[in-house]
Structure formats: C-alpha cells, structure tokens
C-alpha cells in the first residue's frame, strides 16, 4: 500500500493563483464537500474576468498545474523575452497556432511571453489574420493579468508595461 503525498505548496483563501488553461484567479474559499459519498477538500477559485468559478480537489492540484503567481526572476525573464526578436517558424499557420495554444495553456509566463513576442505587430507592420489576433490577445491578456497581480497594479498599467517592452 502506497502513501499518498500531499501537495507541497499550500494555498490560502485570498491568494492569487494561476490555473494553466484559464489564467489568473483568486482563491475565495477552501471547503469540504461530500461528492459521490466521499468527502473532498476543495479549493474554490474565482476568475472574475470570465465570471467563472472552479472547484479543484486539493488532491488534484499538482495534476492540473495550479500554481502561485510567479517569482520575480520568472516575471523578469518573461519581460526580457518580450524585448527579443520574433522567432516565427516557417511552418503552416495551423501547426504554429497549435504550438502557440499549447504554450499559452502551459501556464508558463516565459512561454506565454514568447507567443506575445512572436505575434506582436507594431502599428506600421502588416495586419494580422483574425486567428493570429485572437491568439495574440489571449496570450497578452494572460501575461498582463499575472504581471498586474505580481506588481500590485491594474491590468491597464500591466498592458502599458508589456507594450513598452515590446516596443524596444
């Protein structure tokens, strides 16, 4: 019989967390519920932007990839990534789009910053296709929301900060 290891990261009500496929949310409650005859301890995470609430069993936290807001070094690495030169592979858009979606859903801020950098278009460059724009905005919003929570600032201020790094 093996002993189940409890998650090493502890979460508290009021903490901001990143759920890889949904972005930044806030833990509103840690509760116990009886589901299908067994009692589960659940984290209740609210995503205000999407008007969505997730209940995540504490035992599944590591499996779903829930994590705390990134450390300063990771945020700085993501911001430095934005300054880099876009690396667009010469493969079909559908394959690139799939890779971009995977990077966004990984929840890794540096990978999300790579997507933002690669799809960024300044005012004087060619227009983006609709799907390019959608993926860019999703990645930009995901990164901006984490930077805003990290900096204790508004999303608008985080947007300006990201755009200033992209312009360099």
Describe the structure in your own words.
The chain is 45% helix and 21% strand. With 168 residues, the protein is α+β, with helices and mostly antiparallel strands. It has two domains: 53 residues, Thrombin, subunit H (Beta Barrel); 96 residues, Methane Monooxygenase Hydroxylase, Chain G, domain 1 (Up-down Bundle), CATH 1.20.58.1290. The N terminus is likely disordered.
What would a concise description of this structure say?
The chain has helices at residues 61-64, 72-83, 93-106, 109-119, 130-151, 155-167; strands spanning 16-19, 23-35, 38-47, 52-57, 67-68. It is of the alpha+beta class and 168 residues long.
Topology (elements, then pairings):
Elements: E1 16-19, E2 23-35, E3 38-47, E4 52-57, H1 61-64, E5 67-68, H2 72-83, H3 93-106, H4 109-119, H5 130-151, H6 155-167
Distance between the termini: 57 Å
* Strand segment tally: 5
Unreliably modeled segments: 1-8
How helical, in percent, are the residues?
40-55%
Order of helices and strands: EEEEHEHHHHH
Please give the order of strands in the largest beta sheet. Answer: 4-3-2-1-5
CATH class of the largest domain: Mainly Alpha
Tell me the radius of gyration.
Answer: 18 Å
Rounded mean pLDDT is: 86
Give the name of the CATH superfamily of the largest domain.
CarD-like, C-terminal domain
Domain module count: 2
**CATH level-3 fold name of the largest domain:** Methane Monooxygenase Hydroxylase, Chain G, domain 1
* CATH architecture label name of the largest domain: Up-down Bundle
Tell me about the largest β-sheet: 5 strands, antiparallel
Tell me the strand percentage band.
Answer: 15-25%
């Amino acid at each position: 019989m093996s002993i189940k290891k409890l998650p090493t990261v502890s979460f508290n009500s009021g903490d901001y967390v990143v759920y890889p496929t949904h972005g930044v949310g806030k833990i509103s409650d840690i509760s116990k519920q009886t589901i299908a005859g067994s009692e589960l301890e659940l984290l209740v995470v609210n995503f205000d932007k999407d008007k969505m609430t997730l209940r995540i069993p504490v035992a599944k936290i590591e499996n779903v990839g829930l994590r705390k807001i990134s450390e300063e070094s990771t945020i700085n690495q993501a911001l430095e990534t934005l300054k880099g030169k876009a690396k667009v592979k010469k493969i079909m858009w559908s394959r690139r789009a799939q890779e971009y979606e995977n990077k966004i859903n990984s929840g890794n801020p540096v990978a999300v910053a790579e997507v933002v950098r690669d799809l960024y278009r300044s005012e004087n460059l060619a227009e983006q296709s609709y799907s390019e724009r959608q993926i860019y905005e999703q990645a930009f919003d995901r990164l901006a929301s984490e930077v805003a929570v990290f900096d204790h600032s508004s999303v608008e201020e985080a947007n300006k900060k990201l755009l200033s790094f992209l312009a360099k």
